[in-house]
Amino acid sequence: MSFQPDTLQRDFALPDSFLIPASEVVSLDSVALQRQVDYTIEYVAGTLRLTQPVAGKVLTVEYKIFPFSLKKRYVLNKKVVAEEEEAKSSDASPTSSVPVKKVPRRRVAQRFGGAQLRKSGSLTRGISVGTSQSLRVDSGLRMQVSGRLANKIDVVASLTDQNTPIQPEGNTQTLQEIDKVFIQLKGPNMNATFGDYNLSFSGSEFTNYRRKLQGIMGHAEFQNMSVTMSGAVSRGQFTTNQFLGQEGNQGPYQLHGPNNEINIIVLAGTERVWVDGELMTRGENHDYVIEYGNGQLTFTRNRLITGDSRITVDFQFSDESFERNLWAVRGESRFLQDRVHLSTTFIRESDDKDNPLSLSLNDGFVDRLAEAGDSSAVVPGWTFVGPDSGNYVRDSTGVFVFVGDKRGDYNVRFTFFGENRGEYRNIGLGRFEYVGPGKGSFRPFILLPKAQRHDLVGFNLGFSPSSALDVKGEFAFSQFDANLYSSKDDGDNQGTAYALHLDFRPENLRLGGANLGKFDFSGRLRHKNANFRDIDRTTIAEFNRRWNIENAQATRQEDILELRSSYSPVTGLALRTGLGRLTKSSLFRSNRWETQANLDIKHLPRVDYFVEFIDRDDR
End-to-end CA distance of the chain, in Å? Predict the structure, then answer.
């Protein structure tokens, strides 16, 4: 299939859908293009998008499709309703139709639950035609259903027969996800969701969890117990970006994966953005907008960015390396008149190592991954194809030089390794130029994807002997295998963590009949083994600044002890103070102290006073 657009164009609709993954060969004016570098492709929808628009050039796409076709509708037993008057036996003849008993006509609404179900939707028909593209007829059905399905069972459903790669635009505070498909059943004590849903666990130190999933989730509540279970295919994986802003530059700022991947898709609505520790609000009239399709973040004029702006972004992304399976269970119980709270959480995220999506792993690649252990696994990206059969030549120093289609000896595949971590730069679709070590972002190697598995088990126990005293404890165990293809470096897979919290808050202190005001005291102890791996955010966005920590120190064993107190003698006046110590193994220690005063009394100016002192000691 070939395209030759007359105007600048980057999106192309292929005449087929359900393409075999990784079977495509894409070239521009006979120059081979690389997936995730020069283009992205949706195999189910049959759409291709170039990273740069082109015009006047010939784009050729070759691919394989599955050797079978699917009907739009399959019926096991066709339903027939008799509506004619019952035929009289005297009028019947040997060749006439068999008499049937009259069945009362049922309204369509009754077949779908009667008036208790509310239904709405749309049916679309479309015809598309273009240059070098045959006539194509498109059809789509969307349907929403809500209401009472049966006795004490409610249903909410959003159904469609379309499979679209389109994500909502990230320029509004509220998102409209046109590709969200689900069925939700609700009963008195149980509910279940099938399809697309958001799973959220909160209220703990180490097992807080937020994911956008596709599968099944069930929740049941009893007198003093509740259970939530989920089995799904995760639509993305979690990561965090931290960087400083640029003076006078509102964006776009490119988000990247944990291995510096830039060709990623951010899952819509999963991002959380902080600037200087303050949580931002998405929207053109608020703080920022985001392009989910290419992972680019831009701040609005309402939030000016400087060279000192500390930007933190949590998000889920898809790099199409592996299909990731997820299993999660949380059980909670309360007893002794809700004074004791116990919960247990299990979470597993695991890549399907036998079915990579972005790269076909041959025996040589698997052997290389087995040798690499937890380290990065790379293989040469160049292939000698013979004289006048490739796009690159190799000079006497080993540098690859682009010479054009069928003029070189090599075909070369380049991979993005991060800013100033490569020797080549991209100068056009399929074209790379050598600029020297540490001056480029690409290298002529293939970074092999590593299948990973992350297990997390957490136990929480809370005790409230009175309304003024809360005691909480938590223990967590993690097991993270960074490379399922290798048993090498597995000695550091397991880690543990625990935390203790104490909160004492007598509301009214009296001395000799006089009300002394409100008092609050809290203490916190937290320990994380060096091998413990978080599965989601477990600290505040400004944690590193709060303790004056560098990123290189984040993987060490961590111990934190904090004490806080507050006193409010009268309404509108609050005094707070706190101190703490953080140690990272025996090599780093940070002590901090803070005090704060707030005055907010009617008819008086508001006053806020805050002092913070941090003493860092590198041993």
Answer: 64
